[in-house]
Amino acid sequence: MTDSRRLADLADNLACRSRMGLSKVAGSREDLAQLMDAVMPAAPTPRFTSLAQVRQWMGECTRCSLSRGRDKIVFGSGPEDARIMFIGEGPGAQEDRQGLPFVGPAGKLLDAMLAAVGLRREQVYIANIVKCRPPGNRDPQAEEVAACRPFLEAQVKVIAPAAICTLGRPAAHALLNSDAPMGRLRGQWSRALGVPVLPTYHPAYLLRTPEAKALAYADLKALVKGPTP
After folding, report:
1. Which CATH architecture does the domain made up of 51-225 adopt?
2. How many whole angstroms separate alpha carbon 106 and alpha carbon 129?
3. pTM score, two decimals?
4. DSSP string, the chain
5. How many CB atoms lie within 10 A of CB 106?
6. CB under 8 A, 24+ apart: contacts of 188-194
7. I need a labelling partner for 162 at 20 to 30 A (CA). Which of 4, 22, 46, 192 fits?
């Protein structure tokens, strides 16, 4: 498709959105650039040898609207050679203030869950599918997840974990490209980004639903054991 055809398609899209009363009916040059990015092939992700390089590449990211309401970018924490990587959905209020993942009540529960299976936070890498706090702690939207996806993929490539554990439904859905309910996904090994993936419940969900803690404990025991060959 030619550039002129792409621009014509964008104009038709904006006209349709205007007739339907949707939000993006006009915008700045930056808005048009974002729309063009959605239809033009993305540039290949650079090759990185360290998480510091990934963080530098990310910069003070403004690739989606979450950047407008954040205090700090929550990039991730843990060793670059971690055997296990945990991926949640997004920062909460305390994470946004401190710039670190899982430091609130859910983080304290995660620490206890790790200790129950013989792990320490210092041994694992923890990140989220989006690096900025969604308003009101809502689930990240598809375009926000897509904007952060290159950074998450770069983190996974640098760390090269033996296994990934997704925490909660949004993270599992984003990583596994699935819309299955968590009750069906949790505890079942899959594969994404070339790495075995085991979904389990988010610690915040377990705080609200303590009867599910036994299931999460079983999942973490399976995580430490690793996928069956």
Report:
1. 3-Layer(aba) Sandwich (3.40)
2. 16
3. 0.81
4. --HHHHHHHHHHHHHHHHHTT-S-SS--HHHHHHHHHHHSPPPPPPP-SSHHHHHHHH-S--SSGGGGT-SS----BS-TT-SEEEEES---HHHHHHT-SS-SHHHHHHHHHHHHTT--GGGSEEEESSSSPPGGGPPPPHHHHHHHHHHHHHHHHHH--SEEEEESHHHHHHHHT----HHHHTT--EEETTEEEEEE--HHHHHH-GGGHHHHHHHHHHHHH----
5. 22
6. 189/222, 189/227, 189/228, 192/164, 193/153, 193/156, 193/157, 193/164
7. 46
Tell me the C-alpha distance between 73 and 165, whole Å. 22
Token digits of residue 77: 């924490």
From residue 138, give the alpha-carbon distance in Å to each of 75, 132, 133, 193.
Answer: 19, 12, 9, 25
Q: Which residues contact 104 (CB under 8 A, 6 or more apart)?
A: 92, 93, 94, 95
The tens-digit pLDDT sequence of the chain (229 residues) is 445 455 555 555 555 455 445 555 455 545 545 554 554 445 566 889 999 999 999 999 999 999 999 999 999 999 999 999 999 999 999 999 999 999 999 999 999 999 999 999 999 999 999 999 999 999 999 999 999 999 999 999 999 999 999 999 999 999 999 999 999 999 999 999 999 999 999 999 999 999 999 999 999 999 999 987 6
